[in-house]
Amino acid sequence: MAHPDLPSQNGNSQEDVQEDRVQPGGATALQKARARFLKGVSYFSGDMEVFGKWMEKQFFLLRLLDWVLRGAAQVMFVNNPLSGLVIFAGLILQNYWWALNGFVGTLFATISALLLQQNRGAIAAGLYGYNGILVGLLMAVFSNAGDWYWWLLLPNIFMSMMCPIVSSALASINSRWDLPVFTLPFNILVCLHMVATGHYNNYFPQVLIQPRSELPNITWAELDVAKLFMSVPVGIGQVYGCDNPWTGGIFIISLFISSPITCAHAVLGSAVGMVSGLALAAPFGDIYFGLWGYNCVLACIAIGGMFYALTWQVHLLAITCAFFCAYLGSAIANIMSRFGLPACTWPFCLSALTFLLLTTGTERIFKLPLAKVTYPEKNLRFFWKLKKQEKTEKAEKERKERDEQQRAVEEEVILNEKEQLKVELERMEQGKTENEAQEVKSDSTEE
Amino acid sequence: MAHPDLPSQNGNSQEDVQEDRVQPGGATALQKARARFLKGVSYFSGDMEVFGKWMEKQFFLLRLLDWVLRGAAQVMFVNNPLSGLVIFAGLILQNYWWALNGFVGTLFATISALLLQQNRGAIAAGLYGYNGILVGLLMAVFSNAGDWYWWLLLPNIFMSMMCPIVSSALASINSRWDLPVFTLPFNILVCLHMVATGHYNNYFPQVLIQPRSELPNITWAELDVAKLFMSVPVGIGQVYGCDNPWTGGIFIISLFISSPITCAHAVLGSAVGMVSGLALAAPFGDIYFGLWGYNCVLACIAIGGMFYALTWQVHLLAITCAFFCAYLGSAIANIMSRFGLPACTWPFCLSALTFLLLTTGTERIFKLPLAKVTYPEKNLRFFWKLKKQEKTEKAEKERKERDEQQRAVEEEVILNEKEQLKVELERMEQGKTENEAQEVKSDSTEE
Amino acid sequence: MAHPDLPSQNGNSQEDVQEDRVQPGGATALQKARARFLKGVSYFSGDMEVFGKWMEKQFFLLRLLDWVLRGAAQVMFVNNPLSGLVIFAGLILQNYWWALNGFVGTLFATISALLLQQNRGAIAAGLYGYNGILVGLLMAVFSNAGDWYWWLLLPNIFMSMMCPIVSSALASINSRWDLPVFTLPFNILVCLHMVATGHYNNYFPQVLIQPRSELPNITWAELDVAKLFMSVPVGIGQVYGCDNPWTGGIFIISLFISSPITCAHAVLGSAVGMVSGLALAAPFGDIYFGLWGYNCVLACIAIGGMFYALTWQVHLLAITCAFFCAYLGSAIANIMSRFGLPACTWPFCLSALTFLLLTTGTERIFKLPLAKVTYPEKNLRFFWKLKKQEKTEKAEKERKERDEQQRAVEEEVILNEKEQLKVELERMEQGKTENEAQEVKSDSTEE
């Protein structure tokens, strides 16, 4: 945790490998260039720790912007302002009004956390902003009053400012099990707003969501494979409520900037969601629209390397969790639709919490202490360090035990030798006295 | 906590202030009269500790009545039998049958707690009765079988007697976070009874509650300002399910008897609820009927001085909580209506628990340990005492440090002086020897 | 806990009593025969510990079968492979396809627990199988695709394999209050599957469950008393989703094999459920079908001797819990029907957890530590042993105190005697000196 410039070397190891392939056994000049390149990469990948430290000395508004950008990226567990910037770019590409609402949400959530004197480190990591951006965005997405309905900013600001309160309250509960709050505050607050006003409201009407009441028409011949493949980036975009595949693609880039492992699991999760949708006879439209993907994306990221150290077992667990999350997603969507509500990210929260509460006997599924969670690559290094430490400790212990055993053996040998010497000496002595006695005897007999 | 007669002097400080205004700088005779008056007030305001102690020696039925009356008032967090008596008067004014059901509920809940050997102090404070009165009252209010349907007393008694069991079970959970159970047992049990029987039941039919399915007609011109103002006391009355503004007024009086701070926050909460209703486009009828007020009343009381020590920050937090509670009230009412259920006081419970789970970095938002909670005025004195104690301890510590520093300085001075004296002495000695040497020298030269 | 052959002697005390009645004061030969009989009974009653120990040395598939059979019986809290076998017989009598699904569910749940390296002792006790059998059975029962729809095995296997994950996660939470997870994993997973697919699904349609929307026709004259009595075994059968009274009868036998107390409470619970149904104006059809019984059966078993040590107070508590559970059952069934879901065993889980969270001041309601729970008869012996130990400890303490008092008295006596002797001695000495002085005096006067 001490070398802020190290993580990225690891974080971008895939790129290294690719370069290595192009020029196996390069010259020293090339090695130097590579080192310089890695050094450069380390400045804007991972959690941009150097940048964050530099920011601490800047003036308040600039730091606030840093926090807001990190907050935007934290939805995907990414603590990186550059990723946040790219994400905002993707949002603007999707819809100006939504992007504005998202920005307002993040801003006011962060301000509220400052007013309530929450932990400064957490605020600086954007942990109080990510619920805000989702609240702002999704309230705009599900509003039935159309874009640029400025009154919406009022409940938006109120709900965003409630985020740190709900976060703090939930953290008081979840911390007992060393669990994060995920996007639960967002889920609670957006559902709260939507169901409090509802579709039939004069001021803040919501889009009409109704439960399914007849068999959907599923004809496999009508399946559009191109759209099906497109649903993978769309699923990633739907994490922020966006259905534009380009926006989804931009989000993938933003993930890759910070952590390739996160990026890979995001794509994998979205694919698992798509497959689950097909398996459970979902209408193709829903699958194309990415509704089966976004929860699985988040669940797969959370389990696959973020809160567990990535091993093969954990990778399999992450895929299982994604499947479970897809199932749960369908279930929750059906239940919520009875109240005119969308599923939000409840399925992700519940499935990820379930899988994080799991306790197993194997060491290969290692849950990181919440305070040590950063990003998959750094987590992995922490896990390896811990393993190595344990190994050396064990080896040390074994060595000591062996030493002690040997010493004991040696001591025994010495003792035995001493004993032998003693015995010999005694024998000699005895022999002497016997001799003397004999001598005396002989003397007396002589006399 | 040691002076049972002190609280009320503080608790009624507003009255004192008023008297002071009438006669600034009164004579000694007047001061004596005032002291006597305060002493008198102290006997029936606050939690009537003197009366409670006196009661301990009375025979069982009288004590049971005391507990039942305190239980009736504990719905508003008031531990005062006189307030309870006034509340029963208000209930009788509203509806005889409801009042009877409320009384039966409180009685059997208290008896059940005695049978289950619950904490005697809690029973004596009415903490096992308040859920009972609400269960009894609201089961009568929401029954569709009409008044004086005597069979209703059967489920009423059963559910009242379940109150201590559910209370105890919930307390086992909530106590882990040092939280009260509020009216959760009432919410659970009344919803249980209502949804178990439902509207279409031959023996215990419930009133029909249906979800909103069309846009309500809201014309601001039709707003009746008189009714809007009246909704403030009605909102307080609705805590007990009463829509009579006079009953609400009587309840305000009962609150004022025990604790003016509680009373002020109750009125404030009801007003916040009314404003929220207008802001969220609620039908005017609901607002007039006090449905937007009662949860906010309870939430505002709970946060504003009851479980937090009252400071300006806490006062603002209480208002925020009331707004949040109104929002939540609308949401929960919409959800519950799908099951034919009223919102009960779920919104209050959930919002107050959320705000009590909040952790902040500021000292000005101080959550009292649950065991120390009495009533706002006494809580405040506890908080001030704690503050003063901390201050004196800090001052003491600082004084000690200063003393030590001074002593160290003095010691250094003494040491320096000693050192100086030593040096001088040495020098003198040296001078002496030098002189002697010189003398010797001179002697030798003289010779 | 040390004598595996003892439990059954107690567990079958009722049979003993019956035999005693037949031949009061039998000969020694008869006594020997009885002892041999009891010894024989002890091998297949209780938790069959001897058999379990013998099994440990057998090859894997046989042990797996043992675990699966124990898992089947653990639904009723019975840890006995013979009971499990009898239960499977009952299931086959009901429906081949359901029995197959139940077997597949138990098997894969147990395998999944092995893969996830869960506690081996818990797996061997069938604690990872009972949710699996319920998941498998009820998914088949509520499937609308008809029997022998082989595709159903796919979600069946997936959901069964999720059981240990959900169990482990819930146990992480419940263990904080030393509570079991009951059948919560089954409830969660079956509801998940049913609501995720729903009635309108092309691949996995569920039976249509709709909320009641009109007054049921209840004519007491139409009450069929024979069917009403039959509803008691049917209610026990409905624990496994079976409506065949013979199947229910077989289940009663399987309970009696392991623990007569469990068996008695199962019948009692089913009867309480039936009475509650009549009291709450349920349609007679539902009561005949056992829908009012199965939750009460489980709740009554759980409270009556399984998790509390059986005393008269606990027996009454178990009956109260059964009534509460019936009420809750009606409520939950009404709520779940809005989502097209059955009540499953949610009512049992919630009511039993509530009653286990109860804390009282009386010693007669003793909740066993979760790790010490086995079966009612053995629990009772544990409780008695504890009581006896406490008693002897108390007596010991009192004896010690008495001894010490006596010794103190004796010591005091000795001290007093010593003191007296001293005083006397002093007096004597004094007398002597006085005499001497007198003598001296007299001497001097003489002179």
Automatic annotation (TrEMBL), chains A, B, C:
Tell whether ATP-binding is among the UniProt keywords. Answer: no
Specify the taxonomic lineage: Eukaryota, Metazoa, Chordata, Craniata, Vertebrata
Q: Which family does it belong to?
A: Belongs to the urea transporter family.
- What name does this protein carry? Solute carrier family 14 member 2
Q: Which Gene3D superfamilies match?
A: Ammonium transporter AmtB like domains (1.10.3430.10)
Q: What GO CC terms are in its UniProt record?
A: plasma membrane
- Kindly state which keywords UniProt assigns to this record, in alphabetical order: Cell membrane, Glycoprotein, Membrane, Transmembrane, Transmembrane helix
Q: Where in the cell is it found?
A: Cell membrane
Region ranges (Disordered) = 1-23, 391-411, 426-447
**Topology of the protein relative to the lipid bilayer:** Multi-pass membrane protein
- Enzymatic reactions: urea(in) = urea(out)
